[in-house]
Every structure is written in structure tokens, then in C-alpha cells.
Write a structure and sequence with these properties.
The complex is a heterodimer of chains A (about 110) and B (about 110). With about 110 residues, chain A is mainly beta. Chain A contains no helices and 11 strands. In chain A, β4 and β5 form a beta hairpin. Classes of the chains: A mainly beta (about 110), B mainly beta (about 110). At the A-B interface, β5 and β10 of A face β4 of B.
Chain lengths: ~110, ~110
Amino acid sequence: EAGVAQSPRYKIIEKRQSVAFWCNPISGHATLYWYQQILGQGPKLLIQFQNNGVVDDSQLPKDRFSAERLKGVDSTLKIQPAKLEDSAVYLCASSDPGLKYEQYFGPGTRLTVT
Amino acid sequence: LAKTTQPISMDSYEGQEVNITCSHNNIATNDYITWYQQFPSQGPRFIIQGYKTKVTNEVASLFIPADRKSSTLSLPRVSLSDTAVYYCLVGRRSNDYKLSFGAGTTVTVRA
């Protein structure tokens, strides 16, 4: 079974630039999550989708972050404009809606903002 | 969500058993205890979940005392590849279940 795919794996941008991350979840997983993991900390949930609808985006900085999952499968997370404090690993995860405690994570995208 | 407390780091040697204890004094009746493992440069991975007593799978064992105010993740005969961060999470298995990660315990296994 293929795991959660993410791209790119690494990205370096300057502050005030924009960046986008892509995620392809495990086939059949209706629930998709984006997390931000700052060095030395545990992952923090940014947004959760159920199919193509947003379930929880309470911790998403909506002035600069946006995410979509138009067809209920792939998802993109965008930052515009980026700040230095956005430097982190962005993790995508997916799960079966009935098993949200067991999430499958992708390898993440390491973002460095200079 | 119940607050959890676990050691920041632990050192061990190959072949030893590693026990990581997590405190969750205000755990609710319907809460389950879940552990995740995160290797360097990878996303977290679900290891085990339990409600009470003991749960065992091919990776680890989870011991939960009767009062459920703490739990212990046991990794038998660790190898260098078990070096990782281990997260203890507590929450209700409901439709709005959310993973709330703390800093976790960094386990370093030495040869």
C-alpha cells in the first residue's frame, strides 16, 4: 500500500515570497490533515479536511496560510507571504474517518525562510 | 484534552528494554492513550493505543494501571534503529478526535 506522498521535500525561500506544498493521501482516506512542526517541538495541527470540506482550521494563520482539497483527494497548502517564523517541517497526514487516532503521515516538506 | 507529562530524553543501549512513563492525571473516563514514534526526517507513526491494563503488539507494550493516571510504553530489546522521539497522547475516540502532540521523549539507543 502506498503511503502519503508529499512534495517538494525541501524548499528554501526568502521572506515575503510565496510557497506551495502538495500532498497525496493514502487511497480511500477521506480525512486529510496538515501539521506544522517547528524544530524541537511536536507537530501542530493547522487544518483538517473531511473529503473536500474543512472540519477544523482554528489554528491556521488565515492571513497568510491557505489550503484546499478541491476533489477530495490531493491537497495543497500555501503560504503567502512567508515570514521567518514559518521555517518548519510541514507534514501531511491522512486517516480513515472512523480511525482518526491512527493517522498516517507523509515524510514532510522542510521549509527554510531566509 | 488531558495534559500529558513525559521525560524529555532517555538513553539506552542495544538489547535493553526501554520504558517511557507518561503522566496524565486528569484523564477523562472516555479517553484513550495513544503513542506515536517519530524517526529523524520522517513523519510520526502510530505505535499503539490502549484504554486499561495491558496492550501488546509487534512493536511495543503499553501498561496502564487501574487509576489510568499514567501509562508506560515498553520497547523490548531496543536496537539503534529505535532511536526516535516518542509521543504520548490522550484523547477521546470520537468523530472530532485530534492529535495534540507535546515535545515527546527523545530516546537515544547507543551501541
